């Protein structure tokens, strides 16, 4: 424990240095009379404490001494300045602030422009930060939410983005992974809740989950019991938990509901409990929960649900990843039908991602780019305010000089400026927060549906802290600026200048020109960025989705388990389609299991073409699949490029015919695809290609066209018929269509609910929402920065002109033409502009790279955008220089010379 | 600075009291006070030397010249109580005694001018 004495000496010495440094804040009398002796004693105290109680003791004694020294400052200042004028000391902050407010009130124009400019910048920053904080920074609202992870698979070799879990893989993780204290399989489904007689059936969002859900998310039922592993076993009686809202709204918060049976999709399900209020998944809400069956017989099976897990205590993410990755090697031993070759060919791997990351990763780049954008706006606003402050400092230059000559300490001058800046910054931040609240509401209204965690966005304490930090930073910077101006050596010059009109000092002009250069450069980067986003947006709008969305409404209907006999589904759909077709104004009707760009996930599967001799180890090829009715292609205007259209006869005969997309035909079948045969796998029957349709954007407008297979809603040997379809109707407005369809459905089968109704135009707009939102935000930011930049340039140029009035008058008296004077002034503006734009162009090329991932078919160095932006800013600065130039050319020589 | 009839600030009283037994240097004053108050009052350096400066200004204590310093440590400044300071300390002690007696008797003493 006994350290060498040098340690104690070093600690004492360090404290002495800190003590003397802090002592500088004391007035001179204290520094001369007391500080050194006190520092020696403090060092001695630390040395003794260090010897007696080690590092902690030394630290405590040192801190106590320093705190004591700091607390003495106000009293010592009062003591020293007790006889001097009121408000001349640092201690008198209130007086200073009062004086600053009075001073600003005398110049309402200056004050309000500064406050508003700053307020705009701060509002933009606070609003975007509120979004960033809510979406990216706040932890998810579950106990120890950072321990929750998502488990997924990736098979780039199969051309699939991500594969979730199958019953087989979920059971494997449940049993094998030690790094998880709990694992849950989850799948969101749509289910129809049969109403009581006389009420309409309701469509619910139901979360099918295994029993691990409750441990993973730390949820305990408000009533009844949670699921147990036995609930997921094959043949277990179906059980459900009601969401709190559903229980309140549909069951009157009746506790007796536990133990009762409800009907979901025609199946009787026992309610075993009620969830607490606010239970949701990180990225979605649900109305009720049912137990997800996990059948060990399914083998590797079909990948249909998500896997989430909670890390076991003491296990970090890396070791969980390592364990899950190692487990992939053993897949063939769990699933004998899955060969190593297949896994290799598919480039199979598993991923373990923190749950928050899994939810927000896709919006992270966009949000940080927006945050950077508004930071630029704030910098431009701050440059404007700094410019104003410099003008003001110029005006007070003489006052400052006089006070310096009279012996005011620089610290006192600084305190004066600080008070004024603090008042400006606090007022600006107040305005900014008020504007931010409004802005945030507008943002939330405009934000794309894909923005996760909207519920977490708001003006939280962290956001206020952020605003306060901005205010403090601004106040400090603005206070320092005028001080740079008030060098003591300027005193004589300032006093002389003060007797005349005074010309701006070179240093100030340089500083102000530099500010304008910075503003222009920043503005150019922003405007270029928003130009690029706009170009992307345009390019996206120009993409041909392969269908015509105009005038088409999509209405979802779902059948329950009652339609079991062969042909029943087809009959129902045909009847429904015929009745809808006869409604007034309907130009076309068709149905499809999946709607292009709807973003509700899609079905995909492997297929093979007759006559292929594919090597065994080649990965299977995959196509998206869709089930349609006759009329679908015509209603959406999808091109039939070869072969014939689907007919009801095909559906009623349940014929084995399919339609393939152009990409599938070209890539895998070759010339003359019609009449060739394809099938899903060795076990499924061959189906004849009856036609080739144009490529349709199923997932995203900016995706490459993918191979797709269209089948009729019901076919003889291929699994279940499509029990849920979107009815696509071209013609009538949704407001007219939906009630009419409701009454048709009531006639046909009251148990079939209508759910989501959307127009295809909305669906396409939603797919572009991320791009259009980013483009809009960047557009607003650029407009702000352009305006602020123009104001900045205008301010500087007109200031210079005002300063040179006398000189210009002399020039004109000596015969200079008004035009020459104008040109000279504009030239001055242009010089600054050209430098600013040059810097901006270099910065733009460097900075717009971060937009790369958000851009579509436009390069970050797009000459049109960069050229156009430069030209635009050039015009703006010309316009901003023109007004002062005109004023300059109207200077009356006599007037100007009178002051000489 | 306070007059003789107003209460003496606690830390000044303690410093005068510490010096009443003989000259001390700053660090020793702090230790004496800390000991006497059972750790209830610790005079950290900035406060202590501020008090010493103030007391010296009104002439209640005085700095010893180097030659008279009792310790071998020439760097240290020693302070001693002046006759004025001793008088002030006694006044304060009597005043406090009066209050203490009154408290014991359970009533306030009559204010005497």
UniProtKB/TrEMBL annotation, chain B:
SUPFAM superfamilies: Winged helix' DNA-binding domain
PANTHER family recorded: PADR-FAMILY TRANSCRIPTIONAL REGULATOR
Protein name: PadR family transcriptional regulator
Sequence ranges assigned to domain Transcription regulator PadR N-terminal in this UniProt record: 15-89
Superkingdom, taxonomy of origin: Bacteria
InterPro entries the record matches: Metal_resp_DNA-bind_regulator (IPR052509), Tscrpt_reg_PadR_N (IPR005149), WH-like_DNA-bd_sf (IPR036388), WH_DNA-bd_sf (IPR036390)
